[in-house]
Automatic annotation (TrEMBL):
InterPro entries: OmpR/PhoB-type_DNA-bd, Sig_transdc_resp-reg_receiver, WalR-like. This is Response regulator transcription factor. Residues 130-231 form the OmpR/PhoB-type domain. CDD domains: trans_reg_C (cd00383). The keyword Translocase does not apply. Keywords: DNA-binding, Phosphoprotein, Transcription, Transcription regulation. The modification 4-aspartylphosphate is found at D55. It comes from Clostridium frigoris.
């Protein structure tokens, strides 16, 4: 499954880069590396990249800034690396567009497992749905195959995780999902994340697709139960 998947690894420690690169190449991935934020962003703009492993503490441009700039134009999966361990830091990373979060020191085998899981979830062909979904007379348009979402004709950018949650909800309209059920539906049972991050993803999706995120018309909270899609 790993042939032709290209991963960009960004870290300011050469030793860390070398080890991660070796593990990924062993698994059949093609790997590009960078040691600063500006260079990483230039590589991303000029090379086809399927996943990014991104350290937060970088010279020239921080990992958070790199992530934010990439998210302005792309839904490419991003795994953040950091020595920060508090849950608030993880939520902050997810809120700006990260798909997963790994704290240092970490197991390289675990990191590779997460890479493979995200690649599998993001690029598998698992949707028999219509290619284009049009909702509320074109207020929302979702091209499932191309992972493109438009709001009133204008493109908006969702992370791969946000896109999967949106698809899970809107293809089961009216059905209420608990956080755990939504994680399983969107990402599969092999997902290693924690279900409370669903709240952060939902908040981000609402901000992007709702006219009034505080009074949503599409993704509705059901107190004590979870979320449902209506529209």
């Amino acid at each position: 499954m790993n042939e032709n998947f290209r991963i960009l690894v960004v870290d300011d420690e050469q030793k860390v880069l070398n080890v991660i690169e070796a593990y990924l190449i062993k698994e059949g991935f093609e790997v590009l590396t960078s040691m600063d934020g500006e260079d990483a962003l230039n590589i991303f703009k000029n090379e086809p990249i399927h996943l990014i492993i991104l350290d937060l503490m970088l010279p020239k441009m921080s990992g958070e800034e790199v992530c934010t700039k990439i998210r302005a134009t792309s839904s490419v999966p991003i795994i953040m690396l950091t020595a920060k361990i508090q849950e608030d830091n993880k939520i902050d990373g997810l809120s700006i567009g990260a798909d997963d979060y790994v704290t240092k020191p970490f197991s390289n085998r675990e990191l590779v497992s997460r890479v493979k899981a995200i690649i599998r979830r993001t690029y598998r062909d698992n949707s028999p749905l219509a290619e284009l979904l049009i909702i509320n007379d074109g207020d929302l348009e979702i091209n499932i195959e191309k992972m493109v979402v438009k709001k009133q004709g204008l493109p908006i950018t969702l992370t791969s995780n946000e896109f999967k949650i949106l698809i899970a909800l809107l293809t089961n309209p009216g059905q209420v999902f608990s956080r755990e059920q939504l994680v399983n539906k969107a990402f599969g049972t092999d997902y290693d994340g924690f279900d409370r991050t669903v709240d952060t993803h939902i908040k981000n999706i609402r901000y992007k697709i709702e006219g009034n995120p505080k009074n949503p018309r599409y993704i509705i909270s059901i107190y004590g139960m979870g979320y449902k899609f209506q529209g």
